[in-house]
Each structure stands twice: as structure tokens, then as C-alpha cells.
Protein: VOC domain-containing protein
Organism: Streptomyces yunnanensis
Amino acid sequence: MTTEAAARRMPGAPCWVSLLAHSLPATQEFYGALFGWEFRPGPQHFGPYARAFLDGLEVAGVGELAADRHLPVAWTTYLASDDADVTAEQIRSCGGTVGVGPLDADDAGRMAIASDPQGAIFGVWQGRAMLGTAVSGEPGTPVWNELVTQETDSVAPFYEHVFGFESEAVVSADFDYLTLHIKGKPVAGIHGVGNALPRDRGPHWMTYFAVSDTDAAARRVVELGGHVLRPARDSAHGRLATVADNDGAVFTIIQRR
């Protein structure tokens, strides 16, 4: 396991990302071609579900939406917890909502789906047989998770109280950004985008996947039936692009410096 992956398993840190899509075979085909993922079944607690592997190590999960569940097709960030039931109580007491669970996912772990006071959906994962992402930082793996919301001030205290984050502001007159730390390690971010928040999505958690070449990966997304929402651009952390898969799930690809 990489040291980056180990940091992602600390309580409070993003430890897993999971996607619910309309067609599991089509989604597996898309991400298999884009990232080189291989898939194995399970756990099947909500219906068809597969875990994605890269070089034999767990990376992410992909499930199939039941026909009667009208949920958005989106990547969900799961935050690690030592006790999902205690975390669920803290979420409620701090103004959040628990929509699903806590419940057992076979012997893999215990999970819940919640939303913060501004409505951004995230998961809680108490790992047992499955602790979470086993490799992070390599192309094809999740490398960063970021809450995109209206303003950081309105929601940062919620995450600090529930998950024990220490937040550090990026000092800039026109950039509302907090980096969330656990035990001194940066594990996630909160980006306040004001009126630039997409009206059709509202506040949401964004998953960043590493790629070896952002421009080539963006072209591949389109070839595979997806879309480029924000073209490749350079940032302080690398070259990134915001894309959607063939089912409309949005994520960011980044070629790190």
C-alpha cells in the first residue's frame, strides 16, 4: 500500500470513492478503457456492485442504480470512520442529514450516506474486511477529494466538528479555499465558488483521478462517449480537466507536477 493510500485511511480522511451508474457493464467498459481498471464483484448490499482494481490493488467502487431509485449519477466521496453509528449521530447533531444507514455492507464494513448542512452528499465508511483505497497517487487512482460549495465559512465548522479536520485557508483576496488536514497531513479541500456553483448540481464533492497525460486522457474520455466540461488547464498542482463519463458522472483528471 502506498503512503498516500495509508494517509487516506486515517479517520476523517477520504478513504474510498464509489459511483452508482445506470449500467454496470457500460461503466466498467468506460473506466476500464480510460484508467486500465479491472473489476471484481462485491459487496452486493445495494444490488450489482463491483470493485475496481489497478495492478491487483483496490481503487474504487462502481454500482448499478436500481430502476426505481432516481438518484443523480455521481461519484461519492467516503470519509473514514472508526464508528459509523457515532459519526452518524455527530452528523445529525451538527446540522447534517443521514439519508441511508448506518448499515452493514456484508463483511466489508459499515456505511452511511449523508449530506452536509448545504446539501453536499458524502459517504461514511467504517472498514472491516475492506479498508478502502489501497493505492493512491498513481495514474488511474484517486488523488484528491474536494468539496465544491458556495462559501467555505458556512460549512467548514461542520466538517471540523464531525471529522476532526484542521482547516488552513489559502490566503488570497479572490480565492475562497480551505485545505483540510488530519494529523498535519492535507487530506481534502473545500472550495467556495460563490455564484459559480453549478445550479444543476449544487454543493458537491469532486473526485480527482491522476492521469499521466491530461490532454490525452481528455481526448480518450470523448472517444469513449464522455464529455469535457472544462478543458485542460494548468494549476499550481498540475494540469487538470473536468470531465463527465458516458453516463454523466463528473470528475476531474489531473497530471500532477
User: Anything to note?
Assistant: The helical segments are 3-8, 24-35, 84-93, 156-163, 214-223. The domain at 13-127 is CATH 3.10.180.10 (2,3-Dihydroxybiphenyl 1,2-Dioxygenase; domain 1).
